[in-house]
Structure formats: structure tokens, C-alpha cells
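Q: What would this chain look like folded?
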Amino acid sequence: MTEEKNENGVLTYTTKTVNIPEEYKPISMWGYFGYELLFSIPCVGFILLLVFAFGGTKNINLKNFARSYFCYMIIAAIIFALFFFVFGGAAVFATYANN
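A: My prediction, written as C-alpha cells:
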């Protein structure tokens, strides 16, 4: 935004429009919200997540968001598996220990 004074001393502001290439267009807040809802659909969302994460879009911001969501899902699956094996193993051990 630039400011200029006219002959009466009044400031006027002008904005410059910037042409951003399509692959660098930012995603809006509602866009992130919508993509997160889309990715949370059980089978279709996971497939679309993989498509967007591994090159199904030219938008770099969407590709990076899909990759970060994919990493989040991998970490959540690992934590779930650890809890399952630790507490499941403890339950099996307790069952056999009582018999």
C-alpha cells in the first residue's frame, strides 16, 4: 500500500495488485478447514490425502498441508498401536497370571 498527498494535503492510499502464480496461491482459513474435513472421511479422504500429498495438485501450500496431515496420521497410528500393544499385552498377561 502506498500513500500520496494531493494538492489539498489529503492523504490517499492506493493498493497494488500482485499476480501470484497458481502454484503459490495461499489457502484461506475456510480452505484449510474444508480440506481437513475432507481428509477425515475414512476411505475417500485417505485416498485424496495420498493423492494431494504425492503430487496430485500444483498448489504447493495444499501439497505441504496434505503432507503434514499425513505425518500427523502416521504419528497418531503409531501412538495408537503402542497403547494397544502395551495395554493389550498387560491385559493378556494379567489374564494368564490369574489362572
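Helices lie at 29-39, 42-53, 60-98.
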